[in-house]
């Protein structure tokens, strides 16, 4: 298990503060200042870096596997056929 | 491409109406006043929609949780989008606009009268659930990549099953996030909920997804 590095400096987050932001950090949903504070923490905390890398890998693999979906071969033709009479009628 | 040719017409009459994407027969019936903010003249409904169909089907598959309903859902959303395309505003996000139609179609058509329950308990799993479990299992060492090792053993079907086990309000957010790569803001626009709601639902969805994945991995002897 991880060991906390007990950081408490003002220019970077503590372990708890950084870990609370792991999802928003990986999604780049933090402000620029918050991103820098997390990065500053990770530069000096191996334990948190390991957890962030773990989450990043899981996230990337989940996205990759969930996106491997092919459009059924006849669906495009079905959609096209359903739009034809709409266009003829005015499409509104 | 199998779309009827009249969906891509950019003829002189259509140009005069400012509704360049419309077939001529349609353009003749719609006055400019009906469409104060026309879609971009250089784009067509077909060119905007076609690249979205495969990811839309992927999203529909996890909303409806079966292939037949997913196909019907994408077809219905495409039809409704075509009918409403005159309301699409230039400069806005067509993908978010179309996915809002898709999710609304699902809610109005497929959820009517149905009470759906997810398979994953709403009891929160702890944060970093998979990390903690792999650490407990002793698969984490400084030299290894335990996440990669775990995920390599989980196939697309298993990951999809884990997502499908989430209750709908979490599954819908997670599907738009994982499959479509929408930002929190865009997910909020598609589902018409505040960004804060997206963030909190996604947080719980990720934890439930990790819990479901762990359950599958455990049941199938991977962990």
Largest sheet of chain A: none
Runs of chain A in which pLDDT lies below 50 for 5 or more consecutive residues are: none
- How much strand content do the residues of chain B show? under 5%
Kindly name the structural category of chain B.
Answer: mainly alpha
The count of β-strands of chain B is: 0
Taken from the alpha-carbon principal axes, the silhouette of chain B is elongated
Structural class assignment of chain A: mainly alpha
The greatest inter-chain interface is formed by: A-B, 42 and 64 residues
Level of helix content of chain A?
Answer: 55-70%
- How many whole angstroms does the radius of gyration of chain A measure? 23 Å
Provide the number of structural domains of chain B. Answer: 2
Q: What is the element string of chain A, with H for helices and E for strands?
A: HHHHH
Write the H/E string of chain B, N to C: HHHHHHHHHHH
Given the C-alpha coordinates, what overall shape of chain A results? elongated
Return the average pLDDT of chain A rounded to an integer.
Answer: 85
Architecture of the largest domain in chain B, according to CATH? Answer: Orthogonal Bundle
State the separation between the terminal residues of chain B, measured CA to CA: 46 Å
Level of helix content of chain B?
A: 55-70%
**Mean pLDDT across residues of chain B:** 77
CATH class of the largest domain in chain B: Mainly Alpha
What is the radius of gyration of chain B computed over CA atoms, rounded to a whole number of angstroms? 21 Å
């Amino acid at each position: 298990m991880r060991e906390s590095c007990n950081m408490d400096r003002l220019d970077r987050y503590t372990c708890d503060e950084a870990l609370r932001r792991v999802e928003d950090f990986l999604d780049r949903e933090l402000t620029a200042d918050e991103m820098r504070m997390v990065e500053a923490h990770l530069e000096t905390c191996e334990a948190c870096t390991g957890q962030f890398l773990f989450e990043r890998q899981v996230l990337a693999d989940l996205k990759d596997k969930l996106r491997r979906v092919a459009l059924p071969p006849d669906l495009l033709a079905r959609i096209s056929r359903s739009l034809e009479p709409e266009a003829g009628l005015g499409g509104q | 491409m199998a779309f009827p040719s009249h969906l891509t017409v950019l003829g002189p009459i259509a140009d005069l109406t400012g509704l360049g994407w419309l077939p001529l027969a349609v353009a003749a019936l719609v006055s400019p006043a009906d469409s104060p903010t026309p879609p971009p003249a250089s784009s067509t409904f077909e060119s905007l929609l076609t690249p979205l169909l495969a990811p839309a089907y992927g999203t529909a598959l996890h909303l409806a949780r079966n292939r037949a309903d997913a196909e019907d859902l994408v077809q219905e959303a495409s039809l409704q989008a075509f009918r409403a395309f005159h309301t699409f505003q230039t400069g806005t996000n067509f993908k978010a606009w179309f996915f809002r139609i898709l999710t609304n179609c699902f809610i109005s058509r497929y959820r009517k009268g149905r009470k759906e329950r997810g398979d994953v308990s709403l009891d929160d799993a702890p944060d970093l659930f998979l990390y903690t479990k792999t650490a407990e299992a002793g698969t984490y060492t400084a030299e290894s990549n335990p996440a990669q090792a775990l995920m390599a053993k989980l196939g697309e079907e298993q990951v999809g099953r884990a997502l499908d086990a989430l209750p709908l309000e979490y599954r819908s957010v997670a599907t738009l996030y994982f499959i479509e790569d929408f930002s929190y803001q865009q997910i909020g626009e598609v589902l018409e909920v505040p960004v804060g709601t997206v963030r909190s639902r996604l947080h719980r969805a990720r934890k439930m997804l990790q819990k479901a994945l762990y359950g599958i991995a455990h049941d199938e002897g991977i962990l």
